[in-house]
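Quick question, first post here. What does this chain look like in 3D?
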Amino acid sequence: MANAMYIIDDGIKAWFEGPEWDQVTAEVFRDFAPEIEATAKSNAPWEDRTGDARAGLRASVENQDGLVLLTLSHSVSYGRWLETIQNGRFAILIPTLEEYHRQVSAEVARRVGRARKGNQ
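> Answer (accepted):
Ran it through. C-alpha coordinates below.
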Protein backbone atom coordinates (compact mmCIF):
# COMPACT_ATOMS: atom_id res chain seq x y z
CA MET A 1 0.00 0.00 0.00
CA ALA A 2 1.29 3.44 -0.89
CA ASN A 3 0.70 6.28 1.53
CA ALA A 4 1.82 9.75 2.44
CA MET A 5 1.57 11.44 5.81
CA TYR A 6 1.33 14.91 7.21
CA ILE A 7 2.78 14.79 10.74
CA ILE A 8 2.83 17.21 13.61
CA ASP A 9 4.81 15.80 16.50
CA ASP A 10 6.30 16.99 19.75
CA GLY A 11 7.91 20.02 18.09
CA ILE A 12 4.65 21.86 18.65
CA LYS A 13 4.50 20.55 22.22
CA ALA A 14 7.55 22.64 23.11
CA TRP A 15 5.54 25.71 22.14
CA PHE A 16 2.32 24.61 23.79
CA GLU A 17 2.78 22.84 27.10
CA GLY A 18 -0.92 22.18 27.62
CA PRO A 19 -2.39 18.69 27.62
CA GLU A 20 -4.78 19.31 24.74
CA TRP A 21 -2.45 20.30 21.90
CA ASP A 22 -2.56 16.84 20.30
CA GLN A 23 -6.33 16.53 20.63
CA VAL A 24 -6.76 19.96 19.04
CA THR A 25 -4.41 19.03 16.21
CA ALA A 26 -6.18 15.70 15.66
CA GLU A 27 -9.51 17.54 15.55
CA VAL A 28 -8.20 19.87 12.83
CA PHE A 29 -6.89 16.87 10.88
CA ARG A 30 -10.27 15.11 11.24
CA ASP A 31 -12.02 18.25 9.99
CA PHE A 32 -9.81 18.38 6.88
CA ALA A 33 -9.61 14.63 6.16
CA PRO A 34 -12.90 14.33 4.20
CA GLU A 35 -12.03 17.34 2.04
CA ILE A 36 -8.50 16.07 1.41
CA GLU A 37 -9.84 12.63 0.47
CA ALA A 38 -12.46 14.13 -1.86
CA THR A 39 -9.85 16.36 -3.50
CA ALA A 40 -7.53 13.41 -4.08
CA LYS A 41 -10.37 11.40 -5.62
CA SER A 42 -11.50 14.21 -7.90
CA ASN A 43 -7.98 15.28 -8.96
CA ALA A 44 -6.39 11.85 -9.47
CA PRO A 45 -4.68 12.25 -12.84
CA TRP A 46 -5.08 8.72 -14.16
CA GLU A 47 -7.80 7.38 -16.43
CA ASP A 48 -10.00 4.94 -14.54
CA ARG A 49 -10.32 1.40 -15.80
CA THR A 50 -12.16 -0.16 -12.87
CA GLY A 51 -12.52 2.85 -10.56
CA ASP A 52 -10.96 0.86 -7.71
CA ALA A 53 -7.87 3.06 -7.32
CA ARG A 54 -9.88 6.28 -7.14
CA ALA A 55 -12.51 4.79 -4.83
CA GLY A 56 -9.78 3.35 -2.62
CA LEU A 57 -8.09 6.65 -1.79
CA ARG A 58 -8.46 7.21 1.96
CA ALA A 59 -7.56 9.95 4.42
CA SER A 60 -7.25 8.84 8.03
CA VAL A 61 -6.19 10.46 11.30
CA GLU A 62 -4.35 8.93 14.25
CA ASN A 63 -3.16 10.37 17.53
CA GLN A 64 -0.42 8.11 18.86
CA ASP A 65 0.36 9.60 22.26
CA GLY A 66 1.46 12.99 20.98
CA LEU A 67 2.30 12.00 17.40
CA VAL A 68 -0.61 13.18 15.27
CA LEU A 69 -0.82 11.79 11.74
CA LEU A 70 -3.03 12.56 8.79
CA THR A 71 -2.42 9.76 6.28
CA LEU A 72 -3.58 9.77 2.68
CA SER A 73 -3.25 6.33 1.15
CA HIS A 74 -4.18 3.92 -1.60
CA SER A 75 -6.02 0.73 -0.73
CA VAL A 76 -5.17 -1.00 -4.01
CA SER A 77 -2.00 -3.05 -4.37
CA TYR A 78 -0.86 -1.05 -7.41
CA GLY A 79 -1.17 2.34 -5.66
CA ARG A 80 2.60 2.60 -5.23
CA TRP A 81 2.99 2.05 -8.96
CA LEU A 82 0.54 4.87 -9.71
CA GLU A 83 2.55 7.20 -7.45
CA THR A 84 5.94 6.43 -8.98
CA ILE A 85 5.55 5.46 -12.64
CA GLN A 86 6.76 7.97 -15.23
CA ASN A 87 8.42 10.19 -12.61
CA GLY A 88 5.21 10.62 -10.64
CA ARG A 89 3.01 11.56 -13.59
CA PHE A 90 0.03 9.83 -11.93
CA ALA A 91 0.90 10.77 -8.34
CA ILE A 92 -1.90 12.15 -6.18
CA LEU A 93 -0.90 11.58 -2.53
CA ILE A 94 1.96 14.06 -2.10
CA PRO A 95 0.48 16.68 -4.47
CA THR A 96 -2.78 16.67 -2.51
CA LEU A 97 -1.06 16.96 0.87
CA GLU A 98 1.17 19.74 -0.47
CA GLU A 99 -1.94 21.57 -1.69
CA TYR A 100 -3.41 21.55 1.83
CA HIS A 101 -0.20 21.98 3.82
CA ARG A 102 -0.38 25.73 4.47
CA GLN A 103 -4.11 25.76 5.14
CA VAL A 104 -3.95 22.85 7.62
CA SER A 105 -0.85 24.22 9.36
CA ALA A 106 -2.44 27.65 9.76
CA GLU A 107 -5.63 26.16 11.19
CA VAL A 108 -3.65 23.99 13.63
CA ALA A 109 -1.70 27.04 14.80
CA ARG A 110 -4.90 29.09 15.14
CA ARG A 111 -6.79 26.46 17.13
CA VAL A 112 -3.88 25.45 19.32
CA GLY A 113 -3.29 29.12 20.07
CA ARG A 114 -6.93 29.52 21.06
CA ALA A 115 -6.79 26.39 23.23
CA ARG A 116 -3.63 27.70 24.84
CA LYS A 117 -5.54 30.81 25.84
CA GLY A 118 -8.44 28.70 27.12
CA ASN A 119 -10.79 29.52 24.23
CA GLN A 120 -11.65 26.23 22.61
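The mean pLDDT is 86.
The chain has one domain: 3-115.
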